[in-house]
Amino acid sequence: SHLDDAAPDNNISTLAAHFSVTWRLARAYAASRVSPDAPPPWDSRSDYSTVMQSHHDIDCRASAKYRFACNRIGDYAPEAIQAQRHWWMPFLFIQFVHETIPCLLNHPFLLSMRLRSFRQTIPVYFMQQSFEAINRNAGWVIYFVDVLEKKGVQVSDPVLAHCVVIVATIHLQHSFVQDDLLRGKAQTGFEKCMRFLRRMGAVWPCVANMANNLRRLQDSIVLRPSPAQQDGSSQTRSFSINSQLLWDLLIYDKAVRPDAGWDQSMFGPTLKADVAELSAEHRAAEFDLVGSAGISGHKAMPNEAAVWPPNEDPPPVDLPQNAGLDAQVGDLTGGPSFEDIFFEGVGPFGDQANRFFDGNDYGRAIDDWLNLGT
Questions:
Q1: Residue 85 and residue 208: Cα distance in Å, rounded?
Q2: N or C: the chain end with fewer CB closer than 10 Å?
Q3: Residue 300 gets which letter from DSSP?
């Protein structure tokens, strides 16, 4: 085993450095203001596609030696992890960043900023895959948060804390959806993120600032009064949120500040040339963000988007008989949730070693398909 080697494996640090390059691109994506004529995220010329391509390129080059299937951290004793921190800390950095980049790219707030001038209909498939991306990858971040908590292993990289903050903002948005299962998983995931940040914040003041800002964001959510319909029933609930603070939490340099969400202009908001643009940008990005599953509440989404053909039921989700909490992170019922059924059970169920396809898997699948007629 590579963990038994006396000499440290410097290649995993090299891989971590490569992922840090893509992480820097993702951070720039989160911080950038989008021009009205910018291409939509699914366009190959967009900043979304550029970062995703970089993410895929590194993923293609990553050896199986450094993947979760060969490094099941949950199977190791805390003492063994501490003794091999030179291995496990770069490994955890890779895992957290690898899973958080799709969450950041598909964050509903950042996507809606890129769609605020879009006057056509958002492709339903893009909405589905973006929702699947934030839920599946956020589930993996929560899995590693759970492992670190159970093992009592303390990490010392604030980047990991920021990854948790990004995931927590998604859970916070979904904590107000109407679907009971999705809402319950989101509320549980958010509190797990807060515990992780509080523990790490006891050592790192910048992480303590992140935790405080995240709690401020939660406290900023307010139920908007909605007029009653003619039949006396109330309309769908609508929430407001401090969108400036939300955006700041997605940008590392601002998330670590105790005054995140406050105007940083030395001239004040009345003298800022782009204050009207920023205000419109925030309003467009909010789109009743809280309580919306992904970007499904965006005005450019079709009112009715068929997922399954008529008279065809969603396929059942097969769960392993011995699936425990680690395999079903945040699931309060032990059964498939709304998003798992919606996306054919692609969530964090089953054997987690299979989250990466091996190159031979594709070859075997093609061979099986070609042999069907023989």
A1: 23
A2: C
A3: T
The crossing angle, in degrees rounded to 10, of helices 124-151 and 85-105 is: 150
Radius of gyration (C-alpha) of the chain in whole angstroms? 21
The amino acid occupying position 174 is H
- In the chain, % helix, strand, coil (3-state, to 5) comes to 60, 0, 40
Q: CB–CB of 143/99 below 8 Å?
A: no
Task: 315-322: list long-range contacts, CB under 8 Å, 24+ apart.
Answer: 315/344, 315/345, 317/341, 317/344, 317/345, 317/349, 318/345, 318/350, 319/349, 319/350, 320/349, 320/350, 320/351
Average pLDDT over residues 87-98: 95
What's the pLDDT band for 72 if we cut at 50, 70, 90?
A: very high
Compute CA 89 distance to the chain's CA centroid, rounded to the nearest angstrom: 21
Residue type for position 330: G
pLDDT tens digits along 304-329: 554 445 655 555 544 334 333 333 33
pTM surpassing 0.90?
no
Residues 6+ apart with CB under 8 A from 347: 135, 136, 139, 336, 337, 339, 340
Give the pLDDT score at 116: 80
Burial class (CB in 10 A: 0-12, 13-18, 19+), 59: middle
pLDDT of residue 69: 84
Nearest alpha carbon to residue 237 among 250, 227, 223? 223
d(CA 295, CA 287): 9
Q: How confident is the model at residue 124 (pLDDT cuts 50, 70, 90)?
A: confident
